[in-house]
Amino acid sequence: DTEVTQTPKHLVMGMTNKKSLKCEQHMGHRAMYWYKQKAKKPPELMFVYSYEKLSINESVPSRFSPECPNSSLLNLHLHALQPEDSALYLCASSQGATGPAGEQYFGPGTRLTVT
Amino acid sequence: AQKVTQAQTEISVVEKEDVTLDCVYETRDTTYYLFWYKQPPSGELVFLIRRNSFDEQNEISGRYSWNFQKSTSSFNFTITASQVVDSAVYFCALRGDSSYKLIFGSGTRLLVRP
User: CA gyration radius for chain B?
Assistant: First the structure.
């Protein structure tokens, strides 16, 4: 089973709202990722968690706050977003973060619109 | 520095035609991994294949085949007898052995017309 689930599928939020995106995997993977994808562009890495610890933050603004409560769950907390943050947010997981085990499996994404 | 180039922005073919998607990469790592992902209109990135840098064997999976050539730093993807369901954006990606980060190409949008 190579399934990563994400909720919600779609989210519309105002610039003063606080919301969270959720990601879950039950493959026993120890690395999880958040990506942002704008239309007609490749995904851009935002954060990497390895063994529930934040390993990489690609200079993401603090209005995005990741959280990894356990090895199966990854959240992305959103606060005071800007309209330019509207994008598809993809979660991925891999068995390990580096080496041959770093093959990433992606969820279906959350399409976020900031008004 | 690492880089992946997919020079074909869009390709349009008629169903049952064969189509090849090109991917050229740059890396200084001696051990690295190459990937192809498919992104249909629904948005999910679907993993298709991983190829290790030390394994230059070509691979075939049904109508899909991949040609890895280290000498030209290319990892091309061919779909034989294309179908409408193959319509999607295809991304080639690269990761160094000790790196967390997937380096994506800009993607090739494939349209298969009936």
Answer: 14
